[in-house]
Structures are given as structure tokens and as C-alpha cells.
Amino acid sequence: MKLYISADIEGVAGITAWDEANKGGPTYLEFRELMTQEVVAACEGAMEAGATEIWIKDAHGTGRNILVSQLPECARIIRGWSGHPFSMVQEIDESFAAVAFVGFHSRAGSDANPLAHTFTGKFARVTLNGTPASEFLFNVWAAALHRVPAVFVSGDEQLCLEAKEHVKHICTAAVTRGVGPSTISVAPVLARRRIREGVYAALRGDTARCRVTLPDRFVLEITYSTPVDAYRASWYPGMEHPSPLVVRFETEAYFEVLRALRFVEA
Fold first, then answer.
1. What CATH number did the domain enclosing 58 receive?
2. In this predicted structure, what is the pLDDT of residue 172?
3. What phi, psi does 255 have (nearest 5°)?
4. For 130, left (φ over 0), alpha (ψ -120 to 50), or beta?
5. Any idea what the Cα angle at residue 11 is, between residues 171 and 118, rounded to 5°?
6. Which of 56, 113, 187, 214 is the most exposed place for a label (fewest CB within 10 A)?
7. Which domain, by its residues, includes 238?
């Protein structure tokens, strides 16, 4: 069995502030270690369930956070950013039996995580077909282009609840909850156990139930924090600019949504 894991940091147990998430921050090294441990726990659960090859995308910030020396022998790690529109699920294709998401977080505009955002701090709100969208949703739909089922996600409580709305049978592991600028998290050792057991259960179950059918048409709408950024993004081909803070893009091809995002988030 071949598994894909996309790993972020803002949904890791205990993380609360940006200086903990950003390389060079005074406590970044501690949370880099915790991110790595949660990924390793996911690998352990996958191997127990029969995975023989695990591809991991380091999908936070620089794309160079996970301590690669701690990964199991069957792992392949994707570091850095190629610029491909698949971004946080770079290299995913039909050869993967499933995709799991570790350390993911709530969407821009949510109060469920003090580090909530969608791709960039420039976006105040992002919707797909009228639904407020997280990075998780964008990546689940990217995997769906290759019919790869999204079977597991760990992160904050609100994201896990929303994940169930998009993928009814997905296994989740909620490890943290935001309260204003604070968080309430389980102990890292418990987070790792929930992730290991959750990935195992997800892969031992009927993964086909987690396969997503994409809609026939896609409407991407982005509300920026400043009109300057919205104006700049409005020059992307096919992008509409209905109001000073908002841009809108409509297409029948989901890959074009991902392509547009790579250009307008810069």
C-alpha cells in the first residue's frame, strides 16, 4: 500500500503563536520536533495497517521543517516548493491508495485556532462554490483529481468537524482548540497516539468511502485584507474584481483553480 501524507504545523498539539511556527522563532525548534513526531506517529499507524511506501510533503512555511532523520525507512520526503499548482500535495497521483493530513488547521476568518488562515495572511476569507474553504478542502479536491481518497486528518477541533462535512467517513484526530489567542491542547503523547490509531483505523477500513466526487463547475472567491492586493490579483486571466477587496474566478476545471491560487497568493 502506498500512502501520501501532507503535513502542516498550525494544527499540531500545543502550538499557539506564530513565533512557534516560523523558522527562526525563539520556540520554533520545539514545535518542529512536535510536528515531526506527529508525522512519525502517522507513519507508524500506516505501517501497522500495511503501508509499504509513504510519501510525505513537508507543507508548512519553507517546506523544510520535518526532521528527516526521524522518518522510517519506507518514507520519501518532499521538501521545499516546486511551484506546481498541487503545492501541499505535490506529486500525488493515481498510484496512491489514500492521502492523510497531519497538523492541519482552520480556515481564514475562523476563531477556532489563533493561527487560522488559508494559504496566506493576505486572504481574509476564501470560498469555493460559496463554501468557506480551508487548505484541507483545497487539497482534498486536488487529490480527487486523481481519485485518491482523503482518509484521515488531525488538527484543531473545528477543522475536524468541517472535514466530516466534506468527507463523511474520514477519520479525524482533534488535538487542539483555539480560544481567542489561546489554545487548549491534549498532551503531545496523547496526540501522537490518536494520530497513530486514527491512521491505522482509516487504512484498515473501506477507504473507497472517502473518495470525493468533484462538482462540475468551480467558483473561487477571495476577500483580501487590503484593496491593493485584490487589485493586483484582479489581473490574473479570467479573474473578476466585483468590489475593492474581492476577486472572483470561475471555471469548469479544478486544476485551473489551483493554478490561479499559486499566482494570486504571492
1. 3.40.50.10780
2. 98
3. -55, -35
4. left
5. 100
6. 187
7. 218-264
